[in-house]
Amino acid sequence: MGLFSKDIKTMDELFIHVMQDIYYTEKQIVKALPDMIDKTQNRELSAAFKKHYDETNIHVQRLERAFELMGEKPRATACPAIDGILKEANEISGNVDDRDVLDAALIAAAQAVEHYEITRYGTLISWSQELGKDAVGNLLTKTLNEEKATDKKLTSLAEKKINMKATG
Length: 168
Ligand SMILES: [Fe+2]
Ligand SMILES: [Fe+2]
Prior knowledge:
The chain is an all-alpha fold. It contains five helices and no strands. α1 (11-39) runs antiparallel to α4 (99-131), α3 packs antiparallel against α4 and α4 packs antiparallel against α5. The longest helix is centred in the last third of the chain and has 34 residues, at 134-167. 30% of the residues are buried. The model has no long low-confidence stretch (mean pLDDT 93). One fe (ii) ion binds at residues 52, 56, 114, 117, 147, 150.
């Protein structure tokens, strides 16, 4: 269902719809991360993915709590945007000869995922302020901060690799 579906008439309904979208997204990420962890042989990158795997499970739980606070049953609605991003991530081969190229591709794919999450949570948090849903907004802000920290960590890992290469 698109954002401008006929079924969505109020801001509250739109809010719930985007929650269902990000709920689906987080659940798909939980499924996708183990494969990404398997593909890298870089210890730091693997540790970063594992840490975020644990955090992502908490993101799912926080959304369930947010649905509960809004008197709604947690429900996921398919999100073609994250499906495409994760499909690309899955297509990155674990058989690439050059490990640095593989890691660079994995980092790029993971950052695309984080940026998608950041845009969705950013929207929900600003709407939650407009709609007076402070408790929901506070919960989602915790998650947003973890998405941003993960994105930063991935940037620093990417830069570290480039610097190591430059200094040989
Ligand atoms: Fe997340
Ligand atoms: Fe994330």
